[in-house]
Amino acid sequence: MTPWLMAGLLFTPLAWAVLTLFPAFRLGRVLTRLGILAQFLVAAGLWMTVAQDGGFYYPLGGWKAPLGIELRVDGLAVTFVVLTAVVAGACGWHAGDYLSPETGRHRYFWPLFWFLWAGLNGVWLGADLFNLYVGLELISLCSVGLVALAGNVGALRAAIRYLLAALLGSLAYLLGVALIYGQFGSLSLAGIQALVASAESFPGAGVGLFIMILGLALKTALFPLHGWLPPAHGIAKSPVSALLSALVVKASFYIAARLWLALGEELGSFVLAQAVGVAGALAVILGSWLAFCQSRLKQVVAYSSVAQIGYLFLLFPLTFGVPDSVVQLAQQGIALQVISHALAKAAMFLAAGNLILSVGSNRVEALAGVSRFLPFSLFSFALAGVSLMGLPPSGGFTAKWLLLQASLASGQWWWLAVLLLGGLLSAAYVFRIYRASFVESRGQDQFYHPPRVLEAIPMMLALMSLCLGFVSEPVLAVMSLPFEEGG
């Protein structure tokens, strides 16, 4: 069963990318919805396999490393595979009704969407540094193409800026890989971890790790390297923005987290860990404030992404030089934060897209009076905001509670202020949107009513983000499952 699941997970997106390359938009939509159902079934099957038998390494074609390519199928990886199936599937379904079939360039959304999905699965399951790079590059190139699909001058400018930032981040990552390989003669992350544990000194390897994390921080848009993100996320079509914020920036962070947890204790330093944490704290505070100050709805949500990304990088100081129990708390908190943010931010971008489609404008003040016409989209936006604020019973609350405990247990009490202030600032920009929508507009209201399915999808994602707090224990149990040999 496992070979079929792995083949379905990796090669189905590539096959569907080819299938949807030539047909018109409507046929591509039908094919994509069939593919989404297939991917969800495959992801659910792999989740159940790992939950029952534990994690494992899977050699492609039966060739084990270092001659072949091995995939790391552990609890964390399969959790992200399922998350991708849910979020990408929802965004793809939403795009089928949101994008106009009459716009010729929109038919290219489908192959780019499927190539992006293939790259994401490749990153979640990658076990060596070079194949992680391949998956990351596929994701970046597809994301740039999706941003450019908006077709106007602003979108092209944002796509080029995104491309330059992505290429610079990739070059830094690749330079770090070269330094690591020159030191250890291996690209396998598990092999490098074993060599680091047995070596007495590793000159140059620490520099390689620093450069790799710097490049990945640029691709994740960590403050102050975030300048490319708001234009790209703000001007792209809403389903594209949802994909970028919920999944794409998580891929580079996922690699950075894997590197730090495997090599950070030996190759990192206290100064580096705290510096990354400070950058994350500044991202939370300044990103939230900039989100509050924006006059355009999607820019509010885009700068909110900058802020929420900052929480993720608290992983670095909370897992360096601390007991294993604290490391586990921090890992669980960050993992839940990633999942909660992916669901909530996808819901928020899709709901914002519905509101913009209804009022015909991206400006916040144009929302006046829309509360009486699109209550479900506004409610979805609010539920997603509950998770971003970290209020119970959302997944965001559980994640921040675990991070709070890790901060106290490690003696790093100063991160508590970041968690509390970030929640308050999140509430400020969410309530600002609500206030604008409940203001009665002057003159006669003329709003477009989008199809009901466009309102149902963000509601589903927002409810999942809200209810994540109730099911966090079984999710964390699967993520911490040990490896078993075989496949």
In a nutshell, what does this entry contain?
The protein has 487 residues and is mainly alpha-helical. The protein has helices spanning 2-19, 25-53, 75-98, 109-125, 129-148, 153-184, 189-198, 205-220, 229-235, 238-267, 270-293, 297-312, 315-318, 324-359, 375-389, 395-409, 414-438, 452-467, 472-479; strands at residues 56-59, 70-73. Helix 6 packs across helix 9.
What features would you highlight for this structure?
globular, 74% helix, 487 residues, 19 helices
- Main beta sheet, described? 2 strands, antiparallel
Q: Termini separation (Å)?
A: 9 Å
Count of separate DSSP helical elements? 19
The count of β-strands is 2
Strand order of the largest sheet: 1-2
Ranges where pLDDT stays below 50 over 5 or more residues in a row are: none
The class by helix and strand makeup works out as mainly alpha
Element-by-element helix/strand order: HHEEHHHHHHHHHHHHHHHHH
Silhouette? globular
Rg over alpha carbons: 21 Å
Membrane topology: Multi-pass membrane protein
Family: Belongs to the CPA3 antiporters (TC 2.A.63) subunit D family.
Main location: membrane
Transmembrane segments: 6-25, 37-57, 77-96, 108-127, 133-155, 162-184, 204-228, 240-261, 267-293, 300-322, 342-361, 373-392, 412-431, 452-471
Secondary-structure map:
Blueprint: H1 2-19, H2 25-53, E1 56-59, E2 70-73, H3 75-98, H4 109-125, H5 129-148, H6 153-184, H7 189-198, H8 205-220, H9 229-235, H10 238-267, H11 270-293, H12 297-312, H13 315-318, H14 324-359, H15 375-389, H16 395-409, H17 414-438, H18 452-467, H19 472-479
Antiparallel strand pairs: 1-2
